């Protein structure tokens, strides 16, 4: 009886891993082995990035977003002024 249960458990695990591979393939990943390779590549690439550089880029991006927001507000005001000056009174 225990051998039959073990065989059923192994078969269930095999079916599960095949299903995982199928789902990964739907996402363009050629199975769990490729997924693990990509994970290792990602870890290696991230290890090469300096945290200070990422922090700097984050701050610069926030400053740029703030400046673009200000510029957008100025452009909306300019557009409103242009419309007001162009409309007949």
Textual characterization of the structure:
The mean pLDDT is 94. The protein has two domains: 1-48; 50-89. The longest helix is centred in the last third of the chain and has 36 residues, at 51-86. It is built from three helices and no strands. It has 89 residues and is mainly alpha-helical.
Tally of helical segments: 3
Helix coverage percent of residues?
over 70%
Outline: elongated
Return residue spans where pLDDT drops below 50 for at least 5 consecutive residues: none
Q: Mind telling me the C-alpha Rg?
A: 29 Å
Structural class, judged by helices and strands? mainly alpha
- The number of distinct β-strands equals 0
* Order of helical and strand elements: HHH
Q: What is the oligomer described by this structure? A: single chain
Could you report the average pLDDT, rounded to the nearest whole number? 94
Instruction: Give the end-to-end Cα distance, rounded to a whole number of Å.
Output: 96 Å
Number of domains: 2
- Sheet-strand content, in percent, reads under 5%
Task: Report the major sheet.
Answer: none
SSE layout and pairings?
Blueprint: H1 2-26, H2 31-47, H3 51-86
Short description:
With 89 residues, this protein is mainly alpha-helical.
Based on the model shown, name its key terms.
elongated, mainly alpha, 89 residues, 3 helices
């Amino acid at each position: 009886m225990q051998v039959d249960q073990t065989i059923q458990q192994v078969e269930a695990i095999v079916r599960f891993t095949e299903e995982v591979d199928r789902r990964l393939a739907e996402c363009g990943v050629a199975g769990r082995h490729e997924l693990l390779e990509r994970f290792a590549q990602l870890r290696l690439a991230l290890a090469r990035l300096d945290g200070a550089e990422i922090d700097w880029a984050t701050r610069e991006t926030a400053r740029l977003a703030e400046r673009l927001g200000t510029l957008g507000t100025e452009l909306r005001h300019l557009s409103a002024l242009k419309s007001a000056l162009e409309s007949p009174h």
